[in-house]
Amino acid sequence: MSTEFVAIKRNGPLLDIVLDRPENGNLINAEMSDAIIAAVTNIDDDVKLVRIGSSSADFCKGRQSPMPAADAKPSAETLRRVVAAPPLALYDALKAVRVPVVSIVRGEAIGVGCALAGVCDVALAADTAVFQIPEMERDIPPTLVMSALIGRVPVKTVAHMVLSRERVNATEALHAGLVSRVVAAHELDSAAEKLTQTLLGCSAVTLRAVKQFLHLAPEMPASGASGFAAHLAATALSARF
């Protein structure tokens, strides 16, 4: 499943995705995005966890531009298909994974990198990590990145990051709800491994139930969420007998 710039490895119940394009800060290109989508779509029932990290100093510094040449005068439909559709497909695929997805963030997480961190269910960050959504510096509305974060990160956090274009450090990202936990940079790998083993200690059915509730319950009325909670708990418990 691996490609030249992303290593994808199944290790028992763990699916590891490692961005491996260090010469340019792990800029995501179409091939990398397609490989990640293929890996997380229709995972088998034995997979308990998907983990996304990087092999180098930075998590992901954005996306390799797919913009057609200026003199091509592309239509809006071409731009939608070439520019907008691929990252949206990646974000949707990660949201739809049946089990928890954890991002391990070090260094810079810029643009698409910020979206990748935010779209995961849990984001563990080094205290040296930096987050930014800088697209409006080029007068581009970053609605694609925003679509990954809305519903997962407070609206005012998204608005501030988009409109100010300011770089946000790990502690600020934690307080703003963009990441789940911050640890010292030299402890990131050990903390990630400890979290991984904690999650893998649960059954796949329990982890899938938690993921379903996190994904669907926020859009439900309170009464519906309560009934859904009871259904998922009963289903998971019944698997033990």
Brief account:
The chain is of the alpha/beta class and 241 residues long. Helices cover 44% and strands 16% of the residues.
Overall geometry comes to globular
Weakly predicted, low-confidence segments: none
Total strands: the figure is 9
Query: Numbering strands along the chain, what is their spatial order in the largest sheet?
Result: 1-2-3-4-6-9
Nearest-integer average pLDDT? 92
Largest sheet: 6 strands, mixed
Tally of discrete structural domains: 2
In sequence order, what are the helices and strands, one letter per element? EEHEHEEHEEHHEHEHHH
The CATH fourth-level homologous superfamily of the largest domain = 2-enoyl-CoA Hydratase, Chain A, domain 1
Helix % is 40-55%
Measured distance between first and last alpha carbons: 36 Å
- Per CATH, the class of the largest domain reads Alpha Beta
Taken as a percent bin, the fraction of beta residues is 15-25%
Query: Which structural class matches the secondary elements?
Result: alpha/beta
CA-based gyration radius: 18 Å
CATH architecture of the largest domain: Alpha-Beta Complex
Number of helices: 9
List the helices and strands and how they pair.
Layout: E1 6-11, E2 14-19, H1 30-40, E3 49-54, H2 76-96, E4 101-105, E5 108-110, H3 112-119, E6 122-126, E7 130-132, H4 143-149, H5 155-164, E8 168-169, H6 170-175, E9 181-183, H7 188-200, H8 204-216, H9 222-238
Explain what you see.
It holds the Pfam family ECH_1. This is Putative enoyl-CoA hydratase echA8. Belongs to the enoyl-CoA hydratase/isomerase family. By secondary structure, the chain is α/β, with parallel strands linked by helices. It folds into two domains: 6-197, 2-enoyl-CoA Hydratase, Chain A, domain 1 (Alpha-Beta Complex), CATH 3.90.226.10; 203-238. The chain has helices at 30-40, 76-96, 112-119, 143-149, 155-164, 170-175, 188-200, 204-216, 222-238, and strands at residues 6-11, 14-19, 49-54, 101-105, 108-110, 122-126, 130-132, 168-169, 181-183. Helix 3 runs parallel beside helix 4 and helix 8 (204-216) runs antiparallel to helix 9 (222-238). The chain starts with 5 loop residues before the first strand and ends with a helix.
